[in-house]
Amino acid sequence: MTRVRPSDNQRDRLKETNAFRCCVCKRRSVGFHLHHIDGDNANTVDANLAVLCVEDHDRHHRSGEYAPRHTELKAEEILQFKTDWESFVAEAQRPEPKVLATLSSYGTQELIHSLQLVLQWPDERIAMKQSYHLLDGDLDRLTDEVVADLISIGPNVKMAMIDAPLPVEHCPCCGTGYSRTLKPAVVARLTDPDWATKSSASIYINPAEPRVTILFSLRDQSLLTGSLHLCQGQFLHYHCEGIDDRVPVTDRPSVRTQVTKIVKNVLREWQPAWVFIGTGDPDLPTLLPDLNLPELWEQARRGLKPRKSKSQSRC
Ligand SMILES: [Zn+2]
Ligand SMILES: [Zn+2]
Ligand SMILES: [Zn+2]
């Protein structure tokens, strides 16, 4: 069997029928691979090609190596994801689509914590859920991002807004959602009487790459680590238990100002009693009085800095 590469036309067509998203996780603006579902590289027809992000592609191909009896993402599952998502996008792009969107918010009126967009079929089957954390402190920009996402899937899909924000404990990523249990760190923050006096945030500024990590602890016990890094020079990518958000970087203000704003918002939400900032040797960091981020954040944004080995592409 000779490998047949998809043509540029076919590549573009498939990305379009998937609304420029991975058919499994529905993320967009990430690198995509076209994966041969049946494993036959010669069978390069649309029906056999799935648009996958790099991570989900890995989850399929790597599964056997690391856990021989456990397949993380099976061929049948990929086929199902592809079929479901492509039919949803096709419906969403009709002039009068039958599919719907709802937008819920979490937090309080004064401090919105996150928004969640849910796309569904009329029979309530959910096609996509996406959370947006208000990391950069600008609700209008976040709402614009949600609307742009929805338009990219189907410009005529109607969106219902759920007006009153739900308590942060219900945030689908950080709290119970509708079915999950509260994450221990959220429980501690909400209920532990020592939070106001014995909690701390230790911020570590990586001196060699555009990355900051924040460790929250209570009474010397580590509870939660969040990490923020500049991803592909275009996004500020924040991960924390359950949260995985990419905030697009804008040309102004400086990248470091944008990072500082996100870090401040995270701190504002968690309200630790103590904040420590360090850099240099991660095991014995030099303490800093302020969040003094190195110039390399701007260089990485402008692409002046060559990609740093593996660590920088790690997400
Ligand atoms: Zn994916
Ligand atoms: Zn593949
Ligand atoms: Zn990333």
UniProtKB/TrEMBL annotation:
It comes from the Bacteria. GO terms for molecular function: endonuclease activity. The keyword Hydrolase applies. Keywords: Endonuclease, Hydrolase, Nuclease. InterPro entries: HNH_nuc. This is HNH endonuclease.
